Amino acid sequence: MTDVNWGVRDSRGEWTPEVLPVPAPLFSWPLQPAKILKYLFAPEGFFCPYNMIYAGLAVLSWVYFTPDLSRSVTFKIGWITEIYLRNAVLLIIIAGGLHLRLYMTKGQGETFKYTNKWLATDNKKFLFHHQTWDNIFWSLTSGCIIWTAYEVVTLWGYANGHLPYVSIKAHPVYFVVMMAAIPFLRLFHFYWVHRFSHWKPIYKSSHYLHHKNINIGPWSGLSMHPIEHLLYFSGVLIHWVIPSHPIHAIFHLMHAGVSPALGHTGFHKLVTRGEKGLMADNYFHYLHHKYFTVNFGVEAVPLDKWFGSFHDGSAEAHAAMLEQRKKKSK
After folding, report:
1. N or C: which end of the chain has fewer CB within 10 A?
2. What residues does each domain of the chain span?
3. What is the per-residue pLDDT across 20-37, written as a single tens digit (0 to 9) for each?
């Protein structure tokens, strides 16, 4: 098993992929339909496999693991606890499964790992002096509780007719289009909330906690301060305004809840055999944790490119970042 055909590891143990991140072709001009379709629908494109998996999990959760709306008319501990447990178990399976494979058993060693450093096990800046336990604590307490709180209030709103509801049977095309739009809506919201979180007062009061994780792992993704969780999961509020089905809201929150585990694996590729496997392709966000002042969003919604915070890992981008920092310090 080797990664030498995909990138280069330097003398410090930092691995850089040969193919650097580029903004998605969706908003380039002139439009290039062939590139856009390939980006969206290729086997390892935007929708497949991960966003399709998250959407499928949302549908399954609605059908089998979400209390009937008739129970959500009033706030009761029983159905609220069911939703919290569903969310927590899902996060444990996904983040915990990735952590087990990549960090506990080290199933692919350092192959495709962006740094040869492993997660901290004796560092006083983390709760319990242990990075993973710290990350798990914030993810399952603050993270899952606030995720669940937004979902509970949203389901209560649907159950009582306070939110604009769309029937799947009456509007099947609209339902599918909205499902396809949700990843883009969430990632658009993520950029602005994340950039706001780097505003000094917010950073010092809350976002600093997430950035304790310079060297990231799957549990780092949802390891945040409660203030940041309130901001981060607030994207679901769009479904309080635009007509939606409860599945849309569940998908929106579930995408925010579980996708960060993949985005913070610290690995470029999840190897199954030899060099075969699924792309994790989170180098763009890894650079954000490494440098802090770049890559506030993702390549799919190229706001970083438009607003001058894009860093693809190249020497040119790094020089531009340093020059920008120099200007700000004057």
Report:
1. C
2. 43-290
3. 999 999 988 888 999 999
